[in-house]
Amino acid sequence: MKKSQTKIIAADDPVSTRQKILDAAAETFAEHGFRAATTRMICAKAGVNVALVNYYFHSKAELYKAVIATLFENMGKTLLTIPDTVTDAASWQRAVRTWVARSLQICAAQKPPELWVARLMALEECVPSDLTYDIEEKFAKPVRQCFLRLLRMGLQDDDPVTLALWASNIQSQCVIYALTKQGWGARFRPPDVSHEEWIKRLEDHICDGIFQRLKYS
Questions:
Q1: Cβ proximity of 25 and 50 under 8 Å
Q2: Exposed, middle or buried, 20 (CB in 10 Å: 0-12/13-18/19+)?
Q3: Domain that holds residue 202
Q4: pLDDT digits (tens, 9 = 90+) for 130-152
Q5: Which of these, 41, 42, 177, 195, lies nearest to 122 by C-alpha position?
């Protein structure tokens, strides 16, 4: 009986241990950045020894890649399919609103895993790691190109400068909430307005500005 129980625990243990390390690493990297975070910090948070991190991920860099892949792929999937829902003017407006709302949910998040994504995104912009180029090519660029495709549907002329101006303007209004430490966005919000209400009002404000000047064609 004891042998059987030992086998069951051993079979379950690798999965739970690997996930514990990933979760601890995501939180640690999001708080300290790739350079400042150490394997020992991650191990302490996960409650495992350094040998297990080396066993599952081989190095801090590989662990960071695994964290980025898990977080950014999950978040990116919800954005990449949005332009495919557009068939007319009404569905285009819904798609734009969905994109803005989801971007704000990620950038202004107060809870994981979106909070970790926002912090890692901001840190990669402000304090780039050695893996910034790979992250940009694999995750950031496809999402950005997808957003450009959505915006292009609302422009009368296919002018790359106008398109880039719209994209940078809208994205900056969202990404500013991901900057620096958690709670940064609170300084923009009136004290008697809840976080949820503020984000909804912000979504309406951004979308109203878009729909006043861009029309689906």
A1: no
A2: middle
A3: 2-213
A4: 889 998 998 999 999 999 999 99
A5: 177
